[in-house]
Design a protein that fits this description.
By secondary structure, the protein is an alpha+beta fold. It has 23 helices and 35 strands.
């Protein structure tokens, strides 16, 4: 690339680029810089102002260079985030770094007062880069809701206001922009997203930035700012700043790669620069911001690679030019990173890569197909043909030759007389193991790191011991905070599944759906587009809730009550804004919605013995019109727990055209564990509903085209299994967000029957449990050969007669999968766990649970769920059954300690017949539903005693059924327990949302064994008295049977 002589800053940035790009230890580098600064600061005296200023400038310059690289590494919205986690700084480390820097500036007022450039340039540039990364980060902690992120940004906004208070006087444009960013982010964390074109087309550092992509050419840049200048000016300015950063980065990457191809990058960058400066001239900036300084900030960025750019920035002539400090800081960072690479063997990349390659080659030599069975040791054998070919142990297995029947592999194997070499077809009689290869594998396999697990766990919020304190509600929250948080927090985000209507009052519609009406989508196959408009998926997890009752009663034009500081010029809610147009579009095209009403709850169960009959076994006649006893629950609780009715008549209308029995008319219910979606489905039709809205909204109708056996749904994908009479099964995975994506289909060749199904939270795998203790993993987004794990493979080679995999459940953090089986001979329950990326499994031997067989009412396992340990609490496994003697139990896998969950208050007895159970997203609560339909919340799980309280009543059950489901969901930034059930006889479904409020939110101590008055902290529930004592039993001792629990 021919061009002018590069500047000193350009050379430093190029060196830093080479050392920082695509590193997997960014967190450690940032923490090391912060720790080194803290140690240096110890010896800075109060009178040595220059030394303190030099330290702060060095830290800001080095952190800014890191966050600039991080901004360029963020993936586009339509890219799989998991591939980039290893190269991204964690959200928690990034945010704490910003808080650390702001706190340092606030406390250093005495020594930093005179240095205006430190605040107006270096601090502002660092904040712009870091806040941009935080706003666009694709992996905010999974346990943090939108409200939690608002509170964290509110802390930053408060600290920045302290900086303004401690350093009064005029401030630079960049620093004022930082304050405006934190102001909008603490109101809505998703308000500063990229324009749609940039969000989906911007490249990242995993590919070459040159030649400039179409989204960085003048025509696309001009479209960022409309000609009339309307829209959120801050979103437009930040998008132009992103464009400038990518254009400059392309030249730096070109030099760092020592590229020699002619790309005309200099002239292309100049044209993009001119387009950016022209767009800045069109931008409508509020009067308190200087337009000259705004242009000067981006001009200075372009001067790094285009020295002929006009320089408009002001220099502080009262003191020395501080660019020398910045150059020294970048030199020091490069030197330190180079030393770090030497110490860690070039970030361990070469060593780890070589180890992985050696292990992989051994595995491929053992089985050239690449299908390596976990927990199986590979082996290489030399046969006595003329060329002494090497044959893998898996290949010998394929030819029905068993090299060894025990764990100690035999070094010499006698082959049958008819055996021939797999390569030259010569007769062979002996196979001798090459033991050196096996020994190399045994030594290197433990050294191969699980990089995928490390990358995911690094983005969890549990890496710090202390959690941030809750912000004070006085001072920095604007008057319009509550209204925005409840009513308009989704104004800046596209809809993931279809239209929702948070900004207006939901109009009641008919109580039933007419199949002939235009609002009913009809029968839609997985390949056909949805009846409802669907947009692109989101990277950030957003709530799908509607407004609360108070907010729904207000007209949608309450935006004029917002804080004037938040309203831009022109306001984002003007008639020409995209927000207003979308609200208007939603109002005009609202589909008909069912009106919720309170109804008596009835039960419907059906017996069945065939595999084609769904699991509706019963031991007594179902009462008609019986609901759970809710007399002990207060009216406040009953009002907060909304019971919403939906008509399922269209779901059963299809059955009239098919001559099938009762099982095909049974309605199954499934609630997603990672979103607000619900499935109401029969063997012939699947309805996808969004239960976050009030009332629930139908999002999609899918026609299975055969008999549906199992179904599950996540945030983006629907997975279901269809089968035929000859037990030929097919798994189909449908993308609910992008209907143009083809359906992923797997034809399952074996005759094993499917028993359970689950989809992980990242939607990478669909896992199905089969008979004979078999689990198979299917890729959700690409059709690849599924992986099979036989849970009893270490015990015997043939698993025929082994128990079925009754349950499959992923943990709330998505890093663990738990499967359970129950022996039909002994009643022993066994659990097996996988850790991300789910390549290997192990039995949790300490969690074995023996439950007697041949009881009068035995519907088997109902749940086996996993809670990972965090914040000093132990890992827990909860096992529940629908039996007479299988008491719900919590088990610690580390030591086998177990605690029974039971109550002694008879009228609110938990019992042993449990329909379903789930841990809360935080892991602090456990919720279960028993046969009476009572919903119990269990807290203080690691304490003795723990609190068990009944929080709601739903539908009384006579047997474990598939027409009832329960899940934790986050709706409008609040945690809810959502229960849903259906009645086939009435063609009606019900959804009940139970708000769950923790004591820590209200400052009430969480003391075990003490029951608090619900009115003192806002959650009015029934507390069981006296306190429940935990019954700890020996791990090998059978639990006692409760007498009198059987319902006649």
């Amino acid at each position: 690339m021919a061009g002018p002589t590069p500047s000193s800053l350009f050379l430093r940035l190029t060196n830093t680029w080479r050392a920082l790009v695509l590193r997997s230890d960014v967190d450690d580098i940032v923490l090391e810089l912060l720790g080194r600064f803290s140690l240096e600061k110890i010896y800075v005296s109060g009178s040595d102002r220059d030394a303190h200023q030099h330290l702060v400038i060095t830290l800001l310059s080095q952190l800014k260079s890191i966050f600039d690289i991080q901004r360029l590494t963020l993936p586009a919205d339509n890219t799989h985030v998991g591939w980039y986690l290893g190269f991204l700084i964690s959200w928690e480390v990034a945010l704490r770094s910003v808080e650390f820097v702001l706190q340092t500036v606030v406390e250093g007022r005495e020594t930093l007062w005179e240095h205006r450039s430190l605040r107006e340039r270096y601090l502002a540039d660092f904040l712009l880069s870091s806040l941009r990364v935080l706003a666009l980060h694709p992996k905010a902690p999974a346990t943090q809701r939108s409200r939690d992120r608002r509170e964290r940004f509110a802390r930053i906004h408060s600290l920045l206001e302290q900086v303004f208070d401690n350093y009064p006087g005029p401030n630079s444009f960049s620093l004022q922009v930082c304050k405006e960013m934190t102001n909008q982010l603490h109101l809505d964390p998703d308000s500063l997203g990229l324009p749609p074109k940039l969000a989906s087309e911007l490249p990242n550092l995993t590919s070459e930035l040159y030649p400039l992509p179409p989204c960085l050419v003048p025509a696309s840049i001009a479209a960022i700012v409309p000609v009339d200048g309307f829209g959120n000016w801050l979103v437009q300015y930040l998008a132009l700043r992103d464009v400038s950063q990518f254009v400059v980065a392309a030249s730096i990457q070109y030099a760092a790669n020592k590229e020699t191809r002619e790309m005309r990058l200099q002239s292309c960058s100049a044209r993009s620069r001119n387009a950016v400066l022209t767009a800045l001239d069109t931008l409508r900036v509020p009067p308190q911001f200087s337009r000259v300084e705004m242009v000067a900030t981006l001009s200075a960025m372009f001067r790094i690679v285009l020295p002929d750019t006009l320089e408009l920035s002001r220099h502080d002539t009262a003191g020395p030019r501080v660019e020398e400090f910045e150059l020294d800081a970048l030199d020091a960072l490069f030197t330190r990173l180079a030393a770090r690479q030497i110490i860690h063997r070039v970030s361990d990349r070469e060593m780890v890569h070589n180890v992985s390659q050696v292990v992989r080659k051994i595995i491929l030599q053992d089985n050239p197909s690449g299908q390596f069975v976990p927990n199986k040791r590979p082996g290489i054998y030399a046969v006595n043909c003329s060329d002494c070919h090497l044959v893998g142990a898996s290949q010998l297995d394929l030819t029905n030759i068993s090299p060894a029947s025990n764990e100690q592999a035999e070094t010499k194997i006698q082959l049958s007389p008819q055996t021939r070499c797999l390569y030259c077809q010569e007769p062979i009689s002996i196979a001798r193991e090459v033991s050196t290869i096996r020994h190399a594998w045994e030594l290197l396999e433990p050294l191969r790191p699980d990089a995928d697990t490390i990358n995911v766990e690094r983005h969890l919020p549990t890496q710090f011991q202390l959690r941030p304190p809750r912000p004070q509600t006085s001072g920095f929250l604007s008057p319009g905070y509550n209204a925005l948080a409840m009513g308009t927090e989704r104004l800046h985000e596209p809809e993931a599944y279809g239209p929702s209507y948070p900004g207006r009052t939901v109009l009641p519609g008919p109580t039933s759906v007419d199949p002939g009406a235009s609002s009913y989508p009809g029968l839609v196959s997985p390949q056909s587009p949805s009846h409802f408009p669907i947009s692109l998926p989101l990277r950030h997890e957003q709530s799908r809730a509607n407004m609360t009752a108070d907010c729904r009663s207000k007209p949608p034009d309450d935006h004029d009550k917002l804080d004037p500081a938040f309203l831009t010029d022109p306001p984002p809610f003007s008639h020409d804004s995209p927000v207003f147009k979308r609200l208007q579009h939603n109002t005009d095209e609202a589909p008909s919605i069912h009106t919720p009403r309170s109804v008596p709850m009835a039960t419907s169960t059906e017996k069945g013995k065939s595999k084609w009959r769904l699991k509706f076994t019963t031991s007594k006649k179902a009462p008609v019109g019986v609901s759970g006893d809710s007399s002990s629950l207060s009216s406040t609780v009953l009002e907060a727990q909304k019971l919403e009715e939906i008509s399922l008549a269209p779901l059963l209308s299809t059955q009239k055209h098919h001559g099938r029995g009762k099982p095909s008319k049974s309605i199954n219910v499934h609630l997603s564990q990672s979103s607000t979606l619900a499935l109401f489905w029969t063997q012939l039709l699947i309805h996808v509903w969004d239960v976050a809205t009030s009332p629930p909204t139908m999002m999609r109708v899918v026609l299975p085209e055969s008999t549906c056996i199992l179904a599950t749904v996540a945030r983006t994908h629907l997975a279901y299994v269809i089968g035929t009479r000859d037990q030929k099964l097919t798994l189909r995975i449908v993308n609910l967000v992008q209907p143009t994506i083809s359906v992923v289909e797997y034809r399952i060749p074996s005759t094993l029957w499917c028993k359970s199904i689950a989809i992980d939270r990242e939607e990478n795998y669909v896992v199905i449990g089969f008979e004979n203790a078999t689990v198979r993993f299917f890729k959700a987004k690409t059709s690849e050969q599924p992986r099979e794990d036989r849970l009893h493979a270490l015990l015997h080679r043939d698993c025929r007669g082994c128990p079925s995999v009754d349950t499959l459940a992923f943990s709330q953090d998505g890093l663990a999968l738990l499967a359970s089986t129950r022996s039909s001979k002994t009643g022993l329950v066994q659990t097996y766990s996988w850790r991300f990326p789910f390549h290997t499994f192990q039995e949790l031997a300490t969690c074995r649970y023996s439950i007697p067989l041949h009881e009068s009412e035995d519907n088997g396992l109902s749940a086996a769920i996993f809670r990972p340990g965090s914040d000093g609490e132990e890992t827990l496994v909860c096992i529940t059954t629908w039996t007479q003697s299988g008491t719900p139990v919590l088990i610690q896998p580390q030591d086998g300690h177990r605690s029974e969950i039971k109550t002694d208050v008879r009228h609110t007895k938990l019992g042993t017949r449990i329909q379903c159970a789930a841990f809360s997203p935080s892991g602090r609560d456990l919720v279960m539903v028993n046969d009476k339909g009572y919903v119990f919340q269990v807290t203080n799980l690691n304490s003795s005693p723990m609190d068990i309280r009944r929080v709601a009543a739903s539908k009384e059950l006579t047997a474990k059924t598939d027409s009832f489901s329960m899940s934790f969901m986050t709706i409008a930034d609040e945690d809810y327990v959502v229960v849903a059930w259906a009645d086939s006889a009435r063609a009606t479904g019900w959804v009940k949302k139970i708000p769950i409020t923790g004591r820590e939110s209200y400052g009430v101590p969480d003391t075990p064994g003490i029951h608090y008055d619900s009115s003192s902290y806002g959650a009015t529930t029934e507390f069981l008295s006296p306190p429940v004592e935990l019954a700890a039993t020996e791990r090998i001792r059978e639990l006692p049977t409760e007498n009198g629990d059987v319902i006649g």
